[in-house]
Give the backbone structure.
Amino acid sequence: MRRKKLMIIVISIAVAAVLAFGGYNVYRRPAVFRSLSDNSLSKCQTEAVRSEIFAKRDVKVLAAYFSYSGTTKKAAESISEKTGGDLFEITPLNGYSNVYTQSNREIRRGERPALADTVENMYEYDVVLVGYPVWWHAAPAPINTFLESYDFSGKLIIPFCTSGGSDIAETMPTFLDSCDGLAVYGEKRILSSDETDRWLSDLGFAAQ
Ligand SMILES: Cc1cc2nc3c(=O)[nH]c(=O)nc-3n(C[C@H](O)[C@H](O)[C@H](O)COP(=O)(O)O)c2cc1C
């Protein structure tokens, strides 16, 4: 009888541990159960867009970024300086009073939070670098709103991120979910200035 009781207790503890671990991981990866699409251009089509753009004498560059606590902002400022591009801050209209729970819910539900500003002259740009912090192993939802707010066809979209450790590859499924028909290329997690220089030069940007 005592053995049976002990067995029940052990099994209950094991089930509770599995449920807690599973629940914690689902919370940490809110995009995990979403059905995400990737209808971006193929490698070959993207290369055609890229080479057409870089054959131009004057390539117009925009570094657009979302930053919550300033790290991505710094990276974007440096990238805009190094590429001679313009800078645009992607600002959510309503901000975040509790960034952890709100951002988690937005990503889990695939929300598209409204933004405060628009780029009126987006048609002028050839290359749009899009920067963001990794949030919950995904791109923050305001990035999806931004990507779905303009006609980026014929332009080159280059994602970059900062993070506490996650690589940008983890965020690409949520990023590409908003890139139907677009040429997305060269994504990079920004770590150091030297590495950024090498990355930009590999992408085809001449040092400014
Ligand atoms: C809500 C939230 C979720 C985060 N999720 C992750 C994550 O999944 N992986 C990671 O490496 N860092 C994560 N971070 C850390 C940020 O990506 C990192 O601090 C980033 O550089 C902050 O950029 P910012 O100052 O431009 O906002 C998270 C931060 C916040 C606020």
